[in-house]
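Lab notebook: predicted structure, single chain.

Context: the supervisor wants predicted structures on file for every construct in the current expression panel, including those that have not yet been purified. This is the next one on the list. No modifications to the sequence; it matches the entry in the shared construct table.
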Amino acid sequence: MKNATALIALLLATQAGIAFAEDVTCESKGSKRVECPMDTAGAVRLVKQLSNSPCTEGVSWGLSKHAVWVENGCRGVFSKDAQASDRSGDAASGGIPMLNASCPGNIDVHADQGGPVYINGKEGQLKRFNKNYFEAKDANSGVVISLSINPDGTPSVSYTGKGRANGVCQVHP
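Prediction complete. Output recorded below exactly as produced.
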């Protein structure tokens, strides 16, 4: 019972964003994608490659909101890069591409190159988590737009709304 309680406490702390290790070992077995919880706000770098398979950022490893991901046999140790100038809060709109998207629930999204992000015509509060993941929130409606930059440079957009409404948005060319 003690072990189960400790495990639940650790999982809750990780979900709340409280307990993230500074260095994380993340390993893909074969070609499977694996996500390893990590504080990805700011810059993260590969400090030691453990695999014979290449670990190339944006191809076989990358970042999501709260994790580093690896695939195609990449295994490595990843670390927060305290020296980098790519910190959360600095130039929050840095890597946003120009885009238009339609989301379920009649939610329209527009972003200018470099930001800002508009939700139904209103400028959202923008937060940058890392160079590939951003969120914009419409304070009035509570809608949060999640914008991820894929390894090939294309954007993916999803939303979360009131009452746990959520979905994937259609990005228009």
